[in-house]
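Running this now, will post back.
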Amino acid sequence: MRLGRLAALGLLVPALAHAERPSGVCIEVNLDFLPTDALQIVAWIEQPSGTYVDTLYITQKTGRFGMGNRPGRADFNTGSLMGDTFPYGRRDQTFPVWAHRHGHEFPLVVFQNGDDDNLSHPFAQSSPEDPPPYCRPIQPTEMEFDAGTCASAAFTDKGMFSMFSDERSLYPPRSDLQRRPEDSPSVDLFRATNPFDSVSRATPLGGVPATASWAAPQRVDFGSYVLFVETSKTYDFNLIYNDTTFPSPTGIPWAEYGMAWRGQPSVVYSVPFTIAMTETSASTDAYIGYSDPGGQTGTLHPPDSTITTTTPGSGASRMQLVSDNGSMYRVRVRVKPDFDATAPAAAEAPELTNLTGTTATIAFPAPGDDGTAGMVTGYEIRVRAGGPITAENFADATPIATLVTPVEPGSQQRVDLTGLLPETDYSVGIRPYDNCFNQGPLTVVSFTTPLRQTAEVDWCFVATAAYGSVLANDVTMLRRFRDSVLESSVFGEVAILTYYTFGPSAAGLISESELLRASARAALSPIISWIRGLAY
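Update: finished.
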């Protein structure tokens, strides 16, 4: 029996005593795995005694988009076969073991009107999902058209922190939001209370080898450690855990929306490893246990027959087996010490090579790992709307979701930005880092997106011209009223067709005259006041 399997079963070799790490020695810990489709994953490190050290990797649906601590009942259904795409329903069953070990606690996020049983909320408390991590609630018959694509605009209540001190969560709130007028002031605090945004990553593609790297802070000494990887998956059914034994909620509004997601609980892999002056490697080919199915405790149950082990992508086989020099692993840890104290150079001379109302491309000569020599490990790139990025607020800006693959120094490095809004000021910060996570200087690129092309316009033409910006709250309100109310009736469809026939011409005239713009705002005012009183 291989050592990796012995470790996974808990038959650990004696732990090495911890020794102070020499100053200037950086430690890179690499996690290697081959995921299957649609997994949620978190990886963290503990001492052999069970003392939590740090989280090195978490998929962004939980780490950044707050899936574990969002408003709504935990047993609400979900939408997409590729993951949890509904915006509501706190999924505190996602990573129960990790949640009970990391030592953080957060205020519980609840709906602004206090009705956690309902999927429908007042319009004046619902802001758009842009870019959309979540899709609107849909019925099962709609899933083949809208699943995972968010083709329809979603307007959601982002929630607020509970006013009751005893309502707490072990999961972080969303950190991707910039508060809009419809949102609670709590939204401004969501990001500040989330310590896991910096290690949040997009869900890895199934069947594609993945690596997560962690630069051990100086407080981490030489010695023995244990890496844990917890994985969960929506719709991972078997004979024990399925939509019959764990049915959808009944007796609550909108229960017909979505499908029961309740499947096998999260499974955990464990790898003891060593941090030392020499390179080390360790792995496991088996899971160590599974979590409390309801997520109420952090109990790690030992392997048993309730968890699927032979079906690829399910249960204990959510991580695929990988062949490595005659042995097999599902999770591997590689530890590499380094003496690199030289930071990469800056991303100098950036150019804006493409700009539309919703996208931008930035290009620059790639810097080096050590100054100008060697290839950098990656780039931390963040974007901020409506104000400049500085060294002081860089960490608070929104990370871009696009993967940027480093190229050789001197070659053209390209960064594509999507999901932007027209007529908006943006500031983009670019900071390269090396394999020791030394960070290079910050480079900032600022630009303003133009109007959309005529063929692309789908906004409220007159309202946009009257208010001067598609970001205006009243424009968003009118647009949503158009999408959710007018399009649901024959009269509404005729009104929209007429509006789209004459609207652009009228908008062109209005936008040229402040007098006409003021008159248009006055004309729209009673309509907006009426819509504000609606809740649908």
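Residues 490-511 form the longest helix (22 residues). More later if anyone needs it.
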